[in-house]
Amino acid sequence: MSVFTRRRLLQGAAAAGAAGIGLSTAGKFAGWAAAKPEPLILKTAGIAAQLMAGAPTKNVLTYGEAGPPPVIRMKKGKPFAARLVNGIDDPTTIHWHGIRVPNKMDGVPFMIQPYVYQGDHFDYAFAPPDAGTFWYHPHCNTLEQMGHGLTGVIVVENPNDPAFDAEVALNLRDWRLGDDGQFIAQFRPRDAARSGTYGTVRTANWLDQPQYDAPAGGLVRLRAAITDVTRIYGFRVDGAEAAVIALDGNPVPQRFAPDALQLGPGQRLELAIRMPDDEGAIVSLRDVRGTKPKVLATLRAVGQSLKRDLRDLGPLESNPVAEVDVAAARRIPLALSATAENVAADSICGSLGYSFWAINKVPWPGDTPDPTAPLAELKLGQSYIIDMENLTPHAHPIHLHGMSFKVLSSSTRAVQPLISDTYLIQPDEKVQLGFVADNPGDWLLHCHIIEHQKTGMTSYLRVA
Ligand SMILES: [Cu+2]
Fold this sequence. Notes:
six-stranded mixed beta sheet, Immunoglobulin-like, mainly beta
């Protein structure tokens, strides 16, 4: 005679539940429910917003009821829950850029989850394993939805971080607005086939050159996420001593001054800035790339000097990313090229109707009901090195979902062994990105210049 322990009964209940018998979620499952945090409601909405002088811009998209999408704060290793409620007349999802989530939480429609129609909702729940600066955005009709505003910053806190005197988070992005302040066409095909279609109005936190107060002589932690669909930035700080302390959510092995540091869409910059001692002194974060340099935001020193020293700032804890076994790693060749072989498949997720780009000669926009074959099928737990080569005359910020890689080497420059999820590859560059395939599922890999992504520069890796 078998003895039914409590544990076995619960296993039976779980199996019955999975089979659709519909037992009530008592016991163990009730406990799980109680441990879950209250979900953050992220409801998409169309609003009017003041993005430039003159009339407010209509049909700006956000999460919430007014202003930019909220800065979401999570805690490293602690459960987080959010409910996406779709309040707009366009299917959508949320992707948590750079956060190593379980595959089902990754927000890619068709491949991973159904798209969420107007009036419907989808529940996301995960515990972010890494601390740092990340961001969130839809992964459906992205050029339109992100272009109209659906991009927000995520801060994953680590209680062991060194103490700063102030923190500023910047959401850096452009808008395609006409002289009347209203949206104009989100892209031009001839630009999509080049470096992408740039915005006409540039903002930080939806403002033109905002100013934030910070304690004089204090240490500021400045977090900036490039959430723009197109623009590559070159960062410089004027008026204060500054050091890059983290990039793309991970501490840098060696801190350095940002001297025209290039970062592309999807990437994040974390700076430690030592404010000047004099009250009223101004520090500016500038974009010095391209023909029209711009002050992105400024900090103003207030109060008596705290007389802090950048060199007193302790290290940031490294994130628990598995170390790639370079000697045992298998290689994944990956060539980025321009192509015009065929037209990208149509999709409810916003096909642009062109095919300008390809990965290993296959163009795919990334969110169609008939995915292409995976770029590679990876064995769970095995180390891999992506041998990525840029055969195009343009830079591409290539983003891998679900796993972080280590930058091992480049054919054109000395690189730090950065841990990252997005690599800005330059024309004619070859780069080696090593990682352990430790997160099962199908993971997109695509250019984060959204016009490139949506006109073919997308593929995916299957880990099983
Ligand atoms: Cu690209």
